[in-house]
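(+)-neomenthol dehydrogenase
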Amino acid sequence: MGEEAKRCAVVTGANKGIGYGICKKLASHGILVVLTARNEERGLKAVENLKEFGLSDFVVFHQLDVTDPSSVASLASFIKTRFGKLDILVNNAGVPGGIVNGENLFKVNRREVFDWNLVVHQSYELAEECVEIGFFGTERVTEALLPLLQLSISPRIVNVSSRIGMLQNIPNEWARGVFGDIENLTNEKLGEVLREFLKDYKEGSLETKNWPPAVSGCTMAKAAVNGYTRMLAKKFPHFRINCLCPGFVKTDINQNFGLLSIDEGAENPVRLALLPDNAPSGLFYSKDENIPNGRPKEVLSDVGNLTEEMIDDIVNEFLKDFKEGTLGTKDWPIGMSAYSVSKAALNAYTRILAKKYPSFCINALCPGFVKTHMNHNTGYLTPDEGAVKLALLPSNSPSGLFYFQTEKGSF
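Tokens:
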């Protein structure tokens, strides 16, 4: 079979970490993968490493700096000449927007620390770089490769994002309104919000202008990526375009303090890249890594075989371990333990019911960070804003989904 007949994928930011794992898994599926990286030496070394897995015939390297239009144009020209079209684009390139304390990030994920200022030391320069690479780079690469994706019979775009970019994390009402208005969202509007954010950051007015006070650049860049994903899905209905949070993965960025391996972090991006033609588009997928215990996570994620009795067993096992003081040794969540497990069980129960009653419309949701007595009214949203109207969905709406405020996602 000639190269032009095989499926071809591009993965950005792929010389290490999640991007490298994605390349490895895609190549293992027989897909021709263009592994890209800003640093040519590191990129070529990554391709060389993949030869150990017998994948040398499925991976090639091309240098790519997503901030450089000429570099992006060079990649597009290479794809057109070498393959004639593009089937899969995985936008993975990104930086954290600050210097990360991996140990404290791990504690935040386990609900042991709640102050993000202890996790990321940020500056304007790092936030600007994060926005430029994380959003404008994603946009630049995508727009350049769209003509080649349109030549594919099964085009897929996967944008690696983060739950930190959910709208609930943006206190600025204007920005939240622009990003949430998918019907009228444009590239220009996305860029306008980000430029206003950077302007206010540079002027030292993050707090007074109601921008995210911590992890600011990453929050805004990922929120823009999420909005861009939904905008593209609406514009190209025959594409399958989705974004996702890969989970808390052990990478250089967090000094390998994550809960998931590189292979585990690459699972969802690859799954979205290989979605069938009738799969959903324009969604946000999130891997629930808040329950580190392997067996409960595996059981609650196995929707095909999950039963109500199995959920009850997991919850009872958690309560038994809690009573015996073995949460830590049994790898249950340490902070907000009962809350995390009960919500995970509720999410699983939602999916069971949706499968059991296909004529029903059954979904779960996170309403956002709402001002209530539970958080001493420190939330960003009013009760009215938090009251997402899933109860009034039309009959042809999806079922078995998890909604972040008004944003759809998988469990």
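The mean pLDDT is 87.
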